[in-house]
Automatic annotation (TrEMBL):
InterPro entries: GntR_C, TF_FadR/GntR_C, Tscrpt_reg_HTH_GntR, WH-like_DNA-bd_sf, WH_DNA-bd_sf
Keywords per UniProt: DNA-binding, Transcription, Transcription regulation
Pfam families to which the protein is assigned, alphabetical: FCD, GntR
Protein name: GntR family transcriptional regulator
HTH gntR-type domain boundaries: 7-74
Length: 227
């Protein structure tokens, strides 16, 4: 991995460490080695520690008093609580988008949806996830509510490992695609009530992924004795 040379070093480092967490290179519950990351990114401990504070605020890691930091191990309850709030925000974003979306924005979302459907047919999961994310982000943007978008983005970071896990079943994938087709129809009809409900249900359905091995812990799972 290339060394980091940009300004705003701590934010760039935070993004890089976040990527390691998202892709499983830093596993849930794993202690973070400051020495190894400093060497990997070619930075000093100061920007790394600032980056860890950012990631702690975003819910990706937890800071341990006098013992460094470790990757958060999500629990089913924590994911459910987060999804409940995200579903409410995403539903609201759909309702607002139906009222405020421009024809240009709507055409762009339709094009993204068609592209995503092609990736689904090709079973290109990585490309599908990218287009999927862009669709949801575009609907959020069309809501024209910056506070909503900021709150949603912060919550989304906390459960990104679950939302975009590569361990998705064919049945779940087909159901998600059906939801997306209904979303586009409701958006094109400017049916705010329908789109809001679809978005709420669509996100809550993703809780089926919350018990993926290695991604979350059961609520009563004990912490390691010396953690």
């Amino acid at each position: 991995m290339t060394k980091i040379l940009q300004r705003n070093l701590y934010r760039e480092v935070a993004d890089r460490v976040g990527d390691l967490i998202e892709h499983g290179e830093l596993a849930p519950g794993e202690r973070i080695s400051e020495k190894q990351l400093c060497e990997r990114f070619g930075v000093s401990r100061t920007p790394l520690r600032e980056a860890l504070k950012v990631l702690a605020a975003e819910g990706l890691i937890e800071l341990l008093p006098n013992r460094g930091a470790r990757v958060v191990k999500l629990t089913v309850k924590k994911i459910k609580d987060t999804y409940d709030l995200m579903a409410a925000l995403e539903g609201l974003s759909g309702e607002l988008a139906c009222q405020r979306i421009s024809d240009t924005e709507l055409s762009a979302i339709r094009a993204l949806h068609d592209r995503m459907m092609g990736y689904y047919q090709e079973r290109d999961l990585a490309a599908y996830f990218k287009a999927n994310r862009q669709i949801h982000e575009s609907i959020l943007a069309a809501s024209d509510n910056e506070v909503l978008q900021e709150m949603y983005s912060n919550l989304s970071q906390r459960v990104k490992r679950v939302r975009y896990s590569k361990k998705m079943t064919e049945k779940f994938w087909a159901h998600a695609v059906k939801d997306h087709e209904a979303m586009i129809t409701a958006l094109e009809q400017r049916d705010s009530h329908r789109l809001g409900q679809i978005l709420r249900d669509h996100l809550c359905n993703k809780l089926d992924l919350a018990t993926l091995e290695g991604v979350v812990a059961f609520d009563d799972e004990p912490e390691a004795a010396n953690s």
